[in-house]
Amino acid sequence: MTSKTYNEPDSLAENLEELDTTSEVAYASKKRLMWLRFKQHKVALFSAIMIAIFYFVAIFAHFFSVQDINTFSAKYSYVAPTEIHWFDKEGNFTRPYVNNITRKINMETLEYE
Predict the structure, then answer these.
(1) What is the pLDDT of residue 52?
(2) What is the pLDDT of residue 18?
């Protein structure tokens, strides 16, 4: 078993220079160190991306909304959630749409269907 001793100043200086140039962390700023550590945590990175998407949608909410925020229709206040369709009857990909809503009164129970 051989052990290396670094009594010689040239050898020690060469080893320190080699260590400093190969390590990305040696001269990194605090922000860089935080980013390197944050980048290793996959759940935190996924959460940060999701929060960024939520903020993006919140900023451009008027663009993503399906109707004007000032309109209200009491006619559809008790309508159940409907399925959003992405494909038409022929199987072609289209823009998202919802089928027409029909409302009928059951004459026995007098409830809307």
Answers:
(1) 97
(2) 54
Q: Are 37 and 25 in contact (CB under 8 A)?
A: no
> pTM of the entire structure?
0.45
Q: How many secondary structure helices (H) and strands (E) does the chain include?
A: 4, 4
Q: Which residue has the higher pLDDT, 5 or 24?
A: 24
Token pair 């944050």 in the structure block, residue: 38
Distance CA 79, CA 98 (A): 13
The answer to whether 113 touches 103, Cβ cutoff 8 Å, is yes
d(CA 67, CA 20) in angstroms, rounded, equals 59
**How many CB atoms within 10 Å of residue 85?**
13
